[in-house]
């Protein structure tokens, strides 16, 4: 396997892909749920979903119950709490082996490089800045750079924003690398090639099942479980350059 010649840039998810981090995703999701429950939303409405879906369900509930005016206040409260949870263990974050070498190799070959994360801008710049890595990337797009409800992963426009940040590269010319199905959903919706990593919380079997479930609900031409590229770590991409 080699990189498709049409690829002009490589974008990376951050947590579990480029950086080995420790984020309490259960607490992160709970901070969303508890905020809506405090406004009267039923707890059972959020069972079995996750952060982004929790937000969507909560905002929908506000609209249905005539409480849309409190949306911005709730957004800020959730964002403030999410930032606290994300940054809590920032001191132990570190790049995965081979990550820095890969980005330097890509840049020496003329590729643009970027980070697209659902972490906040403050969180992303803090942990990347701790290793003086901010200068390695032509563009960094975090969840709060745009309207999180409409523009953050897994929305296709998230990769459009990354392409703009890297100098105006269309999503179909960006290889996106991630460790979770949200990353895949973003790439498929944007028409971007994708590499799946098992360095986060998704092993090969889970990757296949989650991608299959997603594509059954939402087919995308050219994307199938059969052509999913799965690698163990970001360092493995060096072998195809």
Entry summary:
With 241 residues, the protein is α/β, with parallel strands linked by helices. It contains 9 helices and 8 strands.
Order of helices and strands: EEHHHEHEHEHHEHEHE
How many DSSP E strands? Answer: 8
The helix content is: 40-55%
Rg, Cα atoms, Å: 18 Å
Provide the spatial order of strands within the biggest beta sheet: 5-4-1-6-7-8
Distance between the termini: 9 Å
Compute the average pLDDT: 91
**Oligomeric state of shown chains:** single chain
Global shape: globular
Please identify, by name, the CATH architecture of the largest domain: 3-Layer(aba) Sandwich
CATH domain topology of the largest domain? Rossmann fold
Q: Approximately how much beta-strand content do the residues carry?
A: 5-15%
How many helices in DSSP terms? 9
CATH superfamily of the largest domain: HAD superfamily/HAD-like
The first-level CATH class of the largest domain is given as Alpha Beta
Structural class, from secondary structure content?
alpha/beta
> Major sheet, described briefly?
6 strands, parallel
């Amino acid at each position: 396997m080699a990189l498709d010649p049409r690829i002009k840039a490589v974008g990376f998810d951050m947590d579990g892909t480029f950086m080995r981090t420790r984020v309490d995703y259960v607490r992160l999701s709970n901070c969303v749920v508890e905020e809506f429950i405090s406004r009267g939303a039923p707890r059972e409405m959020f069972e079995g979903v996750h952060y982004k879906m929790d937000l969507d369900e909560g905002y929908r509930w506000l609209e249905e119950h005539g409480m849309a005016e409190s949306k911005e206040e709730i957004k800020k409260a959730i964002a403030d709490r999410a930032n606290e949870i994300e940054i809590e263990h920032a001191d132990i974050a570190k790049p995965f082996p081979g990550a820095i070498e890969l980005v330097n190799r890509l840049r020496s070959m003329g590729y643009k490089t970027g980070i697209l994360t659902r972490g906040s801008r403050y969180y992303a710049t803090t942990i990347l800045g701790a290793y003086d890595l901010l200068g390695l990337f032509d563009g960094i797009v975090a969840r709060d750079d745009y309207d999180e409800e409409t523009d953050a992963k897994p929305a296709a426009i998230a990769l459009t924003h990354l392409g703009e940040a890297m100098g105006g590269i269309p999503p179909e010319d960006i290889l996106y690398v991630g460790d979770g199905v949200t990353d895949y959903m973003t790439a498929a919706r944007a028409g971007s090639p994708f590499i799946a990593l098992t360095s986060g919380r998704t092993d090969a079997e889970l990757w296949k099942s989650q991608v299959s479930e997603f594509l059954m609900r939402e087919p995308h031409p050219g994307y199938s479980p059969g052509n999913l590229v799965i690698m163990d770590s970001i360092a493995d991409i060096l072998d195809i350059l």
